[in-house]
Amino acid sequence: MSADAYAVKATAGWRRYLRWNTDHKVIGVQYLVTTFVFFFIGGLLAMLVRSELARPGTDILAGQQFNRVVTNHGSLMIFLWIIPVFAGFANFMLPLMIGARDMAFPRLNAASYWTFLAGGVVMVASFFVGAAETGWTAYVPLSIRAPDGQTVWAVSVIIIGASSTMGGINFITTTLTMRAEGMSFWRLPLFVWSMLATSLLVVIATPVLTASLILVALDRLVGTAFFDVAAGGSPILFQNLFWFYSHPAVYIMILPGMGIISEIFPVFSRKPIFGYKMIALSSMAIAVLGMTVWGHHMFSSGMDPRYRVPYMVTSMIIAVPTGVKIFSWLATIWDGKLRFTTAMLFALGFISMFLIGGITGIFLASIPFDIHVHDTYFVVAHLHFVLFGGSVSAAYAGLYYWFPKITGRMLDENFGKGHFILNFIGANLTYLPMFLAGALGMPRRVADYAPEFARLNQLATLGAAILGVSSVPMLYNIVVSWVKGPVAEANPWQARTLEWQTSSPPQDQNFDVPPVITHDPYDYGVAGPAADRPQSASAAAD
Amino acid sequence: MRERTVFALVIISLLLLAAGYIVGTQVNLLPTPASSRAVLVDGLMRFLLGIATVIFLVVEGALLFAVLRFRRRGADDSQGASYRENTTLELVWTLVPAIIVVIIGFYSYRVLAAIERPENDPLVVEVESSQFIWTFHYPEQQFSSSELHLPVGKPVRLEITSKDVIHSFWVPDFRAKRDATPGQVSELLITPTLVGRFPIRCAELCGGGHAAMTSVVIVESQAEFDRWILSEAGPAQ
């Protein structure tokens, strides 16, 4: 088959990462490296924002420039970092974890990466034609009136949406059709379950975002009037379309992270995951409920007020499956033999910070309180506890956990722990004061603020500086370890899922012989010879 | 052993409830309430904060305890416990949050209904926004102003709209916010209860001057309000 021919060529040298290649492991690395580059750019934009906000007054960025930086910080972090970094991990790991040789559609897979890269380059290039300046939400009519950079930005999001949809279709098909013998649904690793839930959301919701931005582009370029009030268009229509994608997008950004830490806790607790089925089903419950809550972004909008209460109810109900996950993780580490590797520390940090994001989510679902804090720094704090404290912690945990498998080299644990400590202190110092600033009256997306918020903003800027510094040991560690770190064995963490039952990095076609799955993925906690039992029988014979 | 565990759980639960009560009643994260709806919203916020404190302490406490108590000692390569589920426990942590959420939802709905209940004979002010200015039109008195004057204790109905892009009218001290959307008029009901000057801020990103799109609401006695009307608009026709 032609797919095999591609895969055989895939082994040669680092240049394969710069070329069209259909090996899922190469594509995974392409995604991961590219997304970390975009993360770095997005982080620099965040540093600019926090520098401007270090004290009242406009010092380095006036209104329009500030709006451009804020808009692209948000857009890069969401579309070019968090969503695709998990696509990177899933590309590399999902076929391995289900015992497949590759993804179901290798060429579609490569196409989705190169489409993503093209979209990312267009988004970054939009800076040179003026950049978008309406926030990542791009509300009309502001986004219809903004200068040309807005069109380029919209085009980039449309391209990235197409890439994301292709990836989603591929993950779903792969999970449904490429599982090894014996890999029943109830033996799937939880990361695979979470990617299945995520991909269903991607496939259902992303086309709606793409469509709504096509309408914006048409209004801007061709003079249609989908959102033009004077011609009978509706700004509220755009908000409905936008949030129909963009609230599920929050779950697209957090579910894979929840999957990653569900992999990590059993391994470093030497215990089975607690409540496997409940965790798997709660991912599905969150995906389904997540499709029904988008109106909670519009409690103070011009939307018909009667629609608000149902959205409040569904939004609050999501706390239940989310709570199930948190309690199940706690029960997983309970009575374990905890090993505090860097991956484990980031997974524990995930619970501790995501919890704050989750609890404040209930505050925001409560309509009367939301009306006060909507579009304020309270929301900024909440979303960063979810997306930075949650998703980014999980991405870091995945990095430290899977780096040996991906590169064949071990990361340095001391640098890793330094990164964790700086990251944990920096994140809490940055985002906690924002809750107070928002509750006291500071709107979001402002280049200037009343002097009463000066102290809180100083603290946040100090925290952001610590976060900036924390990336130094991480980057140094990645680069140096990749080049000359200690060589990793096949299974350095004594884990049982399939990706660890092949060489590091895995060979072509992933496994010598197709694995036959005989056990659950997290059969830890059994003493004696069975203690080293992997999930598959044939791999154990190697 | 069993009795001791129950005893410890009771003590911990009481301490948690006490902590939640203290934080809910003593910690204030919001500016002084200056409208009747602000008092209700603050009550809701305190309730949420109390519950949040208990949940926060339970989860972070369990996390910290587990990290300290169950850490691997030395080079212990043995396995942890082997249990995988506990139906009672799982039912508890599914049902208890569900009940809490129902209570919060019900309370939120009650507050929502109360703060949006129309009062008789309100003062009507039309709020018109444009990049980056607030204009307040008093239709009965037939004049406009760039600052909002309101008589204390009098129910007000703001009719909010926009001439260009979406803005959002927000008075933090009133806990009141409503988007100004072009092509439609949105209502906001407020009864100011405190005399003073309070900032008005735009909460929806509306362009380069967004941060500077501020004004002030001046709450004063009915007599002072009437004097202001008279001096600005002249005698009513």
Q: Which properties best describe this structure?
A:
heterodimer; A: 542 residues; mainly alpha; Cytochrome C Oxidase, Chain A; B: 237 residues; alpha+beta; 4 helices; 10 strands
Brief characterization of the structure:
Chain A has 542 residues and is mainly α. Helices cover 66% and strands 0% of the residues of chain A. Chain A is globular.
Uncertain residue segments of chain A: 1-10
Structural class designation of chain B: alpha+beta
The Cα radius of gyration of chain A reads 23 Å
Globally, the shape of chain A reads: globular
Listing every helix as H and every strand as E from the N terminus to the C terminus, the arrangement of chain B reads HHHEEEEEEEEEEH
Strand order of the largest sheet of chain B: 3-2-1-5-8
The CATH architecture assignment of chain A turns out to be Up-down Bundle
Number of strands of chain B: 10
Largest sheet report of chain A: none
Largest beta-sheet details of chain B? 5 strands, mixed
Give the H and E element order of chain A: HHHHHHHHHHHHHHHHH
Distance between the termini of chain B: 85 Å
Which fold name corresponds to the CATH topology of chain A? Cytochrome C Oxidase, Chain A
- Residues in helices of chain A, as a percent range: 55-70%
Q: What is the arithmetic mean of pLDDT of chain A?
A: 93
How many discrete domains of chain A? 1
Describe this structure in words.
The complex is a heterodimer of chains A (542) and B (237). Chain A is an all-alpha fold. Chain A has a single domain (22-541), classed as Cytochrome c oxidase-like, subunit I domain (Cytochrome C Oxidase, Chain A, Up-down Bundle), CATH 1.20.210.10. Helix content of chain A is 66%, strand content 0%. The radius of gyration of chain A is 23 Å and the shape is globular. In chain B, 42% of the residues lie in helices and 24% in strands. Chain B starts with a helix and ends with a helix. In chain B, strand 1 and strand 2 form a beta hairpin. In chain B, helix 1 (2-26) packs antiparallel against helix 2 and helix 2 (36-69) packs antiparallel against helix 3 (87-115). With 237 residues, chain B is an alpha+beta fold. In chain B, 34% of the residues are buried. The mean pLDDT of chain B is 94. In chain B, the strands form two sheets. Chain B has a five-stranded mixed β-sheet with strand order 3-2-1-5-8, with no helix packed on it. Chain B has helices at residues 2-26, 36-69, 87-115, 222-233, and strands at 123-130, 133-138, 143-145, 148-151, 156-162, 167-171, 176-180, 186-190, 196-202, 214-220.
